[in-house]
Amino acid sequence: MRAANGTFSALGTTIFTVMSALATEHGAINLGQGFPDDEGPDDVRAAAAKAILDGPNQYPPMMGLPALRQAVAAANKRFYGLDVDWQKEVMVTSGATEALADCLIALLNPGDEAIIFEPAYDSYRPVIEAAGAKAIPVPLSPPDWSLPFEKIEAAFTERTKLVLLNSPMNPVGKVFSRAELTRLAELIVAHDAYAVCDEVYEHLVFSGHEHVPLMTLPGMRERTLRIGSAGKTFSLTGWKIGYVTGPAHLMEVVGKTHQFVTFTTPPALQSAVAFGLSKGDDYFAGLASSLEAKRDLLSAGLAEAGFGVLPADGTYFVSADFRALGFNGTDDEFCREITVKAKVAAIPLSAFYSTPGAPRHLIRFCFCKQDAILKEASARLKAYAKGGAA
User: Can you give the CATH number for the domain in which 253 is found?
Assistant: First the structure.
């Protein structure tokens, strides 16, 4: 038999699937996969139910319902001062992962290079490689995960087509500063590259930090594709509603890619998300503050158990150093250890690296869970650290 696609054939089972299966097998609390354990805002879900009953339920416009595209454009203006033409510069996708694929496939040709920052979300590299391009990883270092500009400058070549930036950053919760982003923008402009910005956690930013879209910086408006996610903004990850904002000349090509990937996205869910984006500032501030409180709750519990807890400026995730607990193995081995013995599952941070020298002493916990779950997980880890049963 002829071989299938080499990029995807070579992929193993994801660490998320492995750890979730292990958590189920051992009855562990799963703080590995990044999804909330509530059902999202009542009024947004009610709007979706009404839209299903009222219809229409047939194919919506390929680029997305006008109501949602208008709402995305309005949100860009409201939160970031970006003037966006909803008809030419906004597209709705079936989730942000599809949006990423659409943007990367639309921009990359065989032989191109795309700079990514590691630790990185696991879909980036396979899609880049499936497009025939090469991912050029630049590793970031704990505990502050700052952009290493000497390494970034060295990563640019005449083949660099784009930079893929995730801020706020999964898996480490880093929110890049305006100063860092300004310098990165200068490099992108100097090398005539594009930027694909994964900003799905844009509203999950904590006290003392600000989300700055790269698109708002000098020289970036016409070379940036900005990706958002209703799943993260409204705790409705199963709905798979994403959106892309970008200049018309790029969106025309991204739209053609989308046309042959999913073509459309469920209209009732689009309608409900349009309603959600019009919610008051109190909703968005409350979302961030509630998650910040959960971060603090879990971080305190991890510290009491003996972990070294790293800063987390945003997202659903906090990283922890387990070396003080006396475990001498790798992060992968430690995650398996605590899943079996402490009945708490996490993700090894090295799974998000492809480069040599990835840290092997850090693991990622997800804190977008009910407070009672976070307290129980902390108690189990504390008991494990003291040598007791979970």
Answer: 3.40.640.10
Instruction: Give the count of domains, the chain.
Output: 2
Phi and psi at 242, nearest 5°, equal -120, 170
Residue 390 lies in a domain: no
**How crowded is residue 180: how many other Cβ atoms within 10 Å of its Cβ?**
16
Provide block-wise average pLDDT over 10 residues at a time, the chain (390 residues): 91 91 96 92 98 96 98 98 98 98 98 98 96 97 97 98 98 98 98 98 97 98 98 97 98 98 97 98 97 98 98 98 96 97 97 92 98 98 82
Task: Report residue 149 CA to chain centroid gap.
Answer: 22
As a whole number of angstroms, the distance between CA 309 and CA 143 comes to 9
Q: Determine the Cα–Cα distance for residues 315 and 204; give it in Å rounded to an integer.
A: 5
**Domain range spanning residue 264?**
42-279
0.70 cut: is pTM over it? Answer: yes
Q: Tell me what pLDDT residue 17 has.
A: 93
User: Where residue 350 sits, what CATH number does that domain have?
Assistant: 3.90.1150.10
| Beta carbons of 213 and 222 less than 8 angstroms apart | no
- Residue identified by tokens 């390929």 is 62
Question: For residue 5, what are its two tokens?
Answer: 């696609």
Task: Give the pLDDT of residue 356.
Answer: 84
CA distances to 16, 83, 162, 237 from 113, in Å? 27, 30, 7, 31
Same domain, 30 and 101: no
Read off the tokens for 179: 């100063």
